[in-house]
Amino acid sequence: MRFGYCVNMLAEDPAGVGYDWIARLAELGFDYVDLPMAQMMVLSDEEFESLVLRPLRESGLPCVCSNNLFPASHLLTGPDADHDAAYAYCEKAFSRAAQLGASRLVFGSSGARNVPFGFPREEAARQLAALLTRLSPLAHQYGLTMVLEPLNRAESNILTSIRESVALCRAVDQPTVRMLVDSYHMSLSGETAADVAQTTGMLQHVHIARPLGRGLPCEGDGEDYPAFFRALRAAGYDDAVSMEAYLENQAADAIAASLRYLRDCAEAKGV
Asked: H or E stretch including 208?
């Protein structure tokens, strides 16, 4: 398994990107970085080059994935959904992802995809399927895969379970649309490691965090991380796992300790 970090969870910069952490994560021993697309899209081309691309090159740390594809200002479901605007946005976003060297984009984006009150949920799912189908050739052009992220019900009112998200992935039926599982959202949604099996053959990315406070996973925190990694292996997954956790009041060396622990969990006998 390769381990990265969603640096927007640590961001202190005005845009909320977290680019100041790129070099630090390389020093802490991470394999890659996970950068937020919606936040990077507010940067000018010059800022994107100097604040993001240059630090990536200098650190030697690759960007495997870009999370948070759409900002909340883009409405993807409901009577006011504007897929033309979403497509135009993605033309630039996908280009930037390619400049980063990313191979996958996370379609979480609860604010953009949430279904307006009173709008039929089934119709909203058809809208999302239509948008993903339309974006698929563009994603293929840039060598990208869009990964669907099930979010907990406190954040989203659609794609709130692995089962529902797998159903949409199958409905779109494009190689550029695959699945993500997130241990934090799984826990809040009452899903267990056994539910990961539903993603077999479709799983393309993973997020992990301690459910309590969305904190750093650590030994003895009450969570069965080895079982989660066993489930990933059983689903045929042996690839990128991004830590998506807040640092809270801990020092940076707590991140390194968490990374060592997760590597141990992933490499443990029987995992």
From this structure: strand 203-208
Backbone angle region of 60, left / alpha / beta, with phi > 0 → left and psi within -120 to 50 → alpha: left
**Adjacent-strand bridge partners of 145:** 104
Q: In whole angstroms, what separates CA 4 from the centre of its chain?
A: 11
pTM: 0.96
- State which amino acid sits at residue 177: V
Q: What secondary structure letter does DSSP report for 243?
A: E
* pLDDT tens readout for residues 90-99: 999 999 999 9
Average pLDDT over residues 230-235: 96
**Distance between CA atoms of residues 171 and 18, nearest Å:** 35
155, 195, 204, 206 from 132: Cα distances, Å: 21, 24, 16, 20
Burial of 79 (0-12, 13-18, 19+ CB in 10 A): exposed
Letter for the amino acid at 257?
Answer: A
